[in-house]
Amino acid sequence: NGSKEKAESGVIKIALVIPSTIDDMAWSEAMYNGILAVQKKMGKDKLKLDVSERLWNAVDAGSAIRQYASEGYNIVIAHGAQYQSLLNDIAPDFPKTTFAYGTGYAADQPNIFAYDPFAQQGAYLLGMIAGLKTKTNIIGIVGPVESGDAIKYNKGFELGVKAVNPKAKVRIAYTGSFGDLVAAGEIAKSQIAAGADILTGTAQQSVGAIRVAEGAGNVFWLSSDMDQSSLAPKTVLAAQAYNFSKVIEEMIDSRSKGVLGGKHIPLTLKNGMEEIVYNPQLASEITPDMKAKIDAAEKKINDGTLKISVE
Amino acid sequence: MKNNEEKKKQKQERLLNLFIVVAALLVALFIGALLFIIAKGNPFKAYSVMFTRPFTSLFGITEILVRAAPLMLVGLGIAIAFRSGILNIGGEGQILIGAIAGAAVALAFPGLPKIILLPMIFMASFLGGALWGGIAGWMRSYLNVNEILSTVMLNYIAMQVYMFLLRGPLIDPKEVSYGTGVPQTAVFSKSAWLAKLIPGTRLHSGIIIAIVLAVAVYILLWKTTIGYRMRAVGIEPKAARTAGMNVQWYLLLAMLLSGGFAGMAGAVEITGVHHRALESISAGYGFSGIVVALFGGLHPLGIIPSSIVFGLLIVGSDMMQRAVNVPASIILSIQGLIILAIVSAQIFLVNPKYKEKMLWILGFNARLKNRNKGERR
Amino acid sequence: MIVQFLVGIIIGGIPLSVSLLLAGLGEMFTQRSGVFNLGVEGIMMLSAFIGFFTVYTIGSPILGIIAAMAVGALMGLLMGLVSITFKAEQGITGIGLFMFGWGLSGTLFRVYVGGVTTIKGIDGINIPVLSKLPVIGPILFNQNPLVYVAYILVPVASWLLFKTSWGLKVRAVGTTPAAADTVGINVVKIRYQSLVIGGIMAGLAGAYLSICQAHLFADNITAGRGFIAVALVYFGRWKPSGIMGGALLFSMAHSFQRLIQVYGINFPYEIAVIIPYVLVIVVLALTWKSQSLGPLALGKPYDREFRG
Amino acid sequence: MAERIQQLEMKHISKRFPGVLALDDVSITLKNGEILALLGENGAGKTTLMNILYGLYHQDEGTVLIDNEVIHVKSPKDALLHKIGMVHQHFMLVPNLTVLENIALGYFQNTRFKLDLGLVRKKMMDISVRYDMAVNPDAYIWQLSVGEQQRVELVKTLTLGANLLILDEPTAALTPQQTDELIDLLKEMAKDNNSIIFISHKLNEVKTVSSKIAVLRNGKLVHEGPTGSYSVTELAEQMAGRQINLPKSPEKSKFGDVMLDIKKVWAHNDQGAWGLQGLDLQLKAGEILGIAGVSGNGQKELADVINGVRKVEKGDILLDNWNITNHSAQKIIDQGLGYIPEDRLHEGTLPAFSVRENLILKDYTTSQMSSSIFLKKKVIDSFAEDLIETFNIKCPDMYTSCASLSGGNIQKVILAREITRKPKVLIAAYPIRGLDIGAAEYVHQRLIEARGAGMAVLLISEELEEILDLCDRIAVIYEGKILKVLSGSEADNRKLGLLMAGVTDEE
Ligand SMILES: Nc1ncnc2c1ncn2[C@@H]1O[C@H](COP(=O)(O)OP(=O)(O)OP(=O)(O)O)[C@@H](O)[C@H]1O
Ligand SMILES: Nc1ncnc2c1ncn2[C@@H]1O[C@H](COP(=O)(O)OP(=O)(O)OP(=O)(O)O)[C@@H](O)[C@H]1O
Ligand SMILES: [Mg+2]
Ligand SMILES: [Mg+2]
Fold first, then answer.
1. What pLDDT digit, counting tens, does each position of B71-129 carry?
2. Residue D407 CB less than 6 A away from ligand 1
3. Cα(D278)–Cα(D263) distance, integer angstroms
């Protein structure tokens, strides 16, 4: 009956809680842009959005989430894996509110969605691009911390490279921090100095590495989380981008059918919540031959004949 | 007669304290208002939310206490170290090591009953934090390595050790089997959860533990021979040595205790709030704890209210950011301003010269009276 | 191969050492005068933004650096106002300053820039011919201009501290302010001057990060470097050469751990990442015997008439 | 040197500190070539008055005039510009700078940015030669003995161009010889048309050096006039407002067993050289044994090794036949050692602790004051109250911090604590240094009482007067060894003076 009320008023209030900021050019911004896109479609009067930033710490986030729920927001999105147990704690107290978090698989409560980017899928395709494009046969990954999405991404990427270019070496180095852009830049420099001509990486720190790749000249960057080509149009070749707007739409849709949660939403190439975006300015760098190979692989992934194991 | 006068004086002092703290706060808020204008937000609305909204709901009030618990524990540890002459800025690392040690115990003995398991977790966290603080303490005592240097470095090392354990040996097996790989432990068995004080809120019994420990620290520092020695060593190591105290050992002990308390703050967070250990368990409590301790006058019983005030500051500004829609960063800068203003105001409370002037401004004519009588102490 | 690896370490390490060295040298003056400024991180953060913002709007990196230094000086004055004039506890003042600087930079960035944007900044200079020399070429003759500035400042700081009357005053004020006071030295003024110099240097360090190293600004760009710089002052025992040694040790260790990661030597990366921190502690612990007296009045406000 | 100050006047000076009226309408005058001695008990306001003249403090009321012109001395810099120089009660030297650098510090006030040490060296050597005060310009202050530091202070003040000199207890830490030299020097300088204000508690010196005296009591000027007509006892009476008799130990022929036996002890000093070189000494119950010697000859090391805070390299120390060599300080204290250290504020007490807490510093672990780890508040309170009363310690209440007490009262706290525990052996290092004559009388009485009660007292001092008055035997320490032990009756000023200078074979 809760959903009916909302349907009557016709306005959906979404609250977003993110660990970094809406302009981090990565994970948080991707989600923010996704919601904005839905808002644009539905109209500002139909979808209201409020954001709380820098709630990297789970305690602070918990308080924000609880407050949003008690203020009658319909959907509260806690955009990070670390928020899982918070939601499990809060959700039973607000049975009419939809909660969502990701990366995660466990939607243990009837009003929690767990969204789960299959980072390895897009990464596999990007890895193929890297393997095909590299001249030095050295490809560098600038990692933040070896965990969660970064592992999935890195593994998928490596498999993609090996699939098309077994001779190529993939070198991973971590900064030990998600936000240290300068350190990421330094690692990128070391990677380039050690011969890498294609770089990739995850988390908001990667912005620092992109800048270094751009400065180095003949190095390409492959983006994760979102299309980062606006940062370095001559360097960012392609991106594995999450289409969070579809995730949001699915949740809104579910609610209208009276389902407040309890679902695991994977973000895959197949369901279009994850996609490969090519930088139009560097379109000439991707030959039709390469494109064909990538598309073929994508097809295989989608029909299940190619499984990318991240175990 | 004399008693009356004493009382009047005490009343004046209290009034002065209040007046000065409020005045300092106003100055900070005024400068903060300029920041709001720069950030294109409405300062009036912001402040009214910040200082009233937390009190309008049970949720707000309980949240303040949820924050106060770890702050109090860290603050107590800092005060112990400070009183013994050591500036412990390694709280952040000690919290993490404490949390992970407690988590390891919670995961290893899920079947034990609550009254055994919880104390074991707290003990483990205490020992973990004590180990981390003790490293710095030992190096300071016996190798003469400056504790500021070592604790800054140890904070980074703790962070990496913590992450290593979380994504390796202690990771939730489900995270591995499912392939999400989020660095967090499995949820503890219920017997490792602190009791909830008020259902429907996050308020847990950690705050009671913290208050009890604050009293214990007070007793330790002022009512026991150990505390006597620790404070003596902090004030004048030379005299303490001449009086037969083992200065090095008491410095080390202070750091062990200080780290142990920070470690227990970690225990409170994992058993009271998250019920598991996860990334980013400390919201800078290691640093805020220093501020809390100093606001509390480095006195355990002062740290109780000061951690609650700081809890209000955190919760209130958090609510304010959502209400006014300004960048979250602005809260940090306003908290910074408040700290600066309040420490600046201390001079009016501590320095008798300024204090007299302030009393005079408030209309208490202590100074002139004394003078005419030509009184000597 | 070995030579290449070593050169790689040095080339990778030098840029990293610059911000630590600059901020550390500044903090050395501050501490020598008796003030413990834990707010360096906040100063670096704010000036990194101001430097970036100036380049972003006006386009001149030189002006950016000047603006960053000016903001650093102002932050130094603020620290002075609270810790010298109001005689507040210095550690806590530093933490306040840190929070203020961090928060303000984040706020201004969001409101007036909006999102991550890159700028032209200052690139390394490639001294023709010389930079082609083997081994020393890339190390000595192919660096960012501020790298040279930072390393030239090491002897300059030494000279200032040990060979000028001002430096003598700073040393005296930080050790026995009462003695300095009784020969007519204005303790407050010297401390303010030292704080301003410390602020300017921290500002330069911040500008280096945003304008020279990253060519952009992002929230928390300094990521703890200011705190490391403060720690290195202790490591270097309040001497420019010691601080340089510390900054080099720390950043070379960083560079080393990055390279072993990049070359795929297989062990948990966490261990690699903590190498520099452990190394700094270990070196200091091993050299404990050569202890020297620091500024004895460090952290203590000075007041002629006030008796604790 | 340029023009001299002809006349200095301080008129109607009042100064208030929170809770204390330190100076109440005080006026003094000083003419060129005069030496004015400023007398008064501890806390009478002498230093405060001089600090006002020197610009360190600012008077609440009153004016300062030089040559009939009102001057405003806002800071020491102004004072130096007016050619006023001051040697402070506590040395104002930077320990980790050299002598030369310390002097340059003041010298370069208004000169160039570049440090020209050569110039200062020349100036300084001029002064040093002219007044015959040898100092090594390149030595670090921390390497110097107290006497040498005192000389540096003087040279510094003169190099900075002062011709009105304020000397605040300059002789407190000097040996008799050094004191004599200083007095000659001051007279010399006065002849040279300098004016001098001299503060001291040692009335003999005052009588020899000064041409004029001013006496402060409780912040008020109670007497001013020429020195000539007063005897030392009269001066003492002026100061304290009562009669004062410095006590002497009554003759005694029977002493107890050997309580402290120091056998050929060797120990390093802070600089790593040998501070004690096979020192040998026996101390009996019920006697006061004086250690006479120029400071820096091993007194500090001796006190330290007995206390267990310095390592004994060779030799043994027996306390009541127990070997305490290299035991921990705690053990030695438990064995029955009492100690009145030289640095009363930072070694003898914990300055920020209350009087109450300082009084229990050595007894808080006894079963009387604590059970297991808990301190017994009530017992301690009444204990502290008792001591404050019996030892007449002047403090607002027992919760006042020790740092805020006057030197004499701090010494009383230490005495009360150490004597009440009835130690077998009591070491007293320079117990009356800096104390006024009334307080000195008090301390001496207590030491004599301790002797009467059978304690073995080791009195380390440079003041021959004190040693001759109190000691049953006198050991002269020289370069880390006991040069000779004299009985109280055979010793006199001259003999001791020679021995202290290392001369053993007179005639
Ligand atoms: N800065 C200060 N703050 C508070 N009280 C002070 C201060 N300086 C001096 N006093 C008080 O003023 C009085 C005079 O002190 P002053 O130091 O002038 O005495 P003095 O005559 O020099 O004593 P002494 O012989 O011990 O050196 C004392 O009661 C002292 O406690
Ligand atoms: N900012 C500075 N940088 C370097 N040296 C300085 C600085 N300020 C002062 N000095 C040195 O100190 C000398 C003057 O110091 P002093 O404290 O007397 O200054 P002042 O301007 O006379 O003081 P005030 O005007 O505040 O009374 C200068 O000649 C120079 O040697
Ligand atoms: Mg005095
Ligand atoms: Mg001037």
1. 999 999 999 999 998 889 899 999 999 999 999 999 999 999 999 999 999 999 999 99
2. yes
3. 7
* Average pLDDT of the residues in A294-310: 90
**Residue D399 in contact with ligand 1 by CB distance below 6 A:** no
> Distance between CA A75 and CA A98 in Å, rounded?
5
Alpha-carbon distance of C271 to B118, in angstroms, equals 31
Q: CATH no. for residue C93?
A: 1.10.3470
Q: Is C217 on the interface with B (CB under 8 A)?
A: no
Q: At residue B5, what is the residue type?
A: E
CATH superfamily of D255-336+425-507: P-loop containing nucleotide triphosphate hydrolases (3.40.50.300)
Q: Interhelix angle for A288-303 vs A148-164, to 10°?
A: 120
Cα(C122) to centroid(ligand 4), Å = 40
DSSP, residue by residue, A74-135: SEEEE-SGGGHHHHHHHGGG-TTSEEEESS-----STTEEEEEE-HHHHHHHHHHHHHHH-S
Whole-number Å distance between alpha carbons of C46 and A253 = 45
Report the C-alpha gap between B129 and B137 in whole angstroms: 12
Residues from chain C that touch D157, judged by Cβ atoms under 8 A, are none
Q: Where along chain D do its domains lie?
A: 7-240, 255-336+425-507, 342-422
Q: Are D363 and D422 in contact (CB under 8 A)?
A: no
Question: For residue D43, which ligand has an atom nearest its CA?
Answer: 1
Establish whether the linkage from the previous residue to D325 is cis, with ω within 30° of 0.
no
Q: Is residue C152 domain-resident?
A: yes
Across the interface, do D218 and B374 touch by the CB < 8 Å criterion? no
| Residue C92: inside a domain | yes
Query: Which residues have C-beta under 5 Å from ligand 3, the single-atom ion?
Result: D 47, 89
> How far is residue D66 from each of residues A175, D216, D372, D424, measured CA to CA in Å?
70, 22, 65, 57
Residue A257 pLDDT more than 60? yes
Chains that touch A (3 or more CB pairs under 8 A): B, C
Asked if the domains D7-240 and D255-336+425-507 are classified in one and the same CATH topology, the answer is: yes
CB pairs below 8 Å between A and B: how many? 108
- As a whole number of angstroms, the distance between CA D167 and CA D89 comes to 8
Residue C43 lies in a domain: yes
**CB atoms B163 and A147 under 8 Å:** yes
| C-alpha of residue D44 to centroid of ligand 1, in Å | 7
Q: Mean pLDDT for each 10-residue chunk of chain C (308 residues)? A: 82 92 97 95 97 95 97 97 92 91 93 84 78 72 87 96 92 93 92 97 97 90 91 91 94 90 79 87 75 77 72
Domain D7-240 sits in CATH 3.30.540.10: no
Neighbours of B44 (CB within 10 A): 10
User: Would you state the pLDDT for residue B37?
Assistant: 92
Mean pLDDT by 10 residues, chain D (507 residues): 79 88 94 93 90 93 93 91 89 91 80 78 89 86 81 89 90 79 89 92 89 92 87 83 84 89 93 90 95 88 93 94 93 93 88 92 88 90 93 87 84 93 94 87 93 94 89 94 91 87 72
Which tens digit of pLDDT belongs to each residue from D64-106?
Answer: 999 999 999 999 989 999 999 999 888 899 988 999 999 998 8
Q: What is the pLDDT of residue C291?
A: 53
Interface of D with B (CB under 8 A): 16-21, 24, 218-219, 307-309, 328-334, 339, 341, 343, 346-353, 357, 361-362, 364-365, 370, 373-375, 377, 396
User: How many other CB atoms sit within 10 Å of the CB of residue C286?
Assistant: 11
Dist. CA D241–CA D481, nearest whole Å:
43
Domain count, chain C: 1
Asked if A190 lies within 8 A of C218 by C-beta distance, the reply is no
Quote the domain boundaries for residue C70: 2-115+139-293
